[in-house]
Amino acid sequence: DGGITQSPKYLFRKEGQNVTLSCEQNLNHDAMYWYRQDPGQGLRLIYYSQIVNDFQKGDIAEGYSVSREKKESFPLTVTSAQKNPTAFYLCASSIFAGSSYEQYFGPGTRLTVT
Amino acid sequence: DAKTTQPPSMDCAEGRAANLPCNHSTISGNEYVYWYRQIHSQGPQYIIHGLKNNETNEMASLIITEDRKSSTLILPHATLRDTAVYYCIVRANAGNNRKLIWGLGTSLAVNP
Predict the structure, then answer these.
(1) Å from A37 to nearest chain B CA?
(2) Which CA distances in Å does A11 have to A5, A46, B49, B93, B103?
(3) Which of A9, A18, A52, B50 maximizes the CB count within 10 A of its CB?
(4) Is residue A44 a contact partner of residue A60, using CB atoms and an 8 Å limit?
(5) How far apart are CA A29 and CA A8, in angstroms?
(6) Is B34 in CB contact (< 8 Å) with chain A?
(7) What is the DSSP string of A38-78?
(8) B17 near B78, Cβ under 8 Å?
(9) Is the CB of B40 inside 8 Å of chain A's CB atoms?
(10) How does pLDDT run across B79-109, given as a tens digit for each residue?
């Protein structure tokens, strides 16, 4: 089955620790995205990548870092500098070319930092 | 990207059509209308998108007004599994910025 996988589904960390969220896609999509969702809110873009070894900050990149060493993978690190890291994190991908840019989403990782 | 306005919540009886409105009065000529939905605690799911003409697929129909300032997503025969938050988003498909700007959406409750 083609799709996007995120692991783990639930993640618990102590304050002050860095944590890396995994995102893998086998859709052969060029572009990948990380969003954050807080309760009752819409999605906010953290980082996106349109091609391997290149990525851009989204609207709320502070306290986060990413890498894109392979087309299939776009891990997100939540650093200790992120002031309020507890949230639902969603990874997405989309095909780069053409007129249709619908994004396909993974199941999400719910991060709780205490 | 243009902003959208959606009602915060709607109800629909199972088996009936669900009509979800969206206002996007500042939409530009090159901006598409996209609809996604998010079932509780899952990732959003793409439903449909369109530019000017009405569109239909296996999930829904999208009706865009002639002036493109509003649109309606139609789920023809709503089921309990259609209970979700529905997001209307407008964005251009050209250029380097392929970001989607997400609002709060409409929470649709399909009742038995």
Answers:
(1) 10
(2) 15, 18, 34, 35, 26
(3) B50
(4) yes
(5) 22
(6) yes
(7) -TT--EEEEEEEEETTEEEE-SS-TTEEE--SBTTB--EEE
(8) yes
(9) no
(10) 999 999 999 998 876 555 556 778 889 999 9
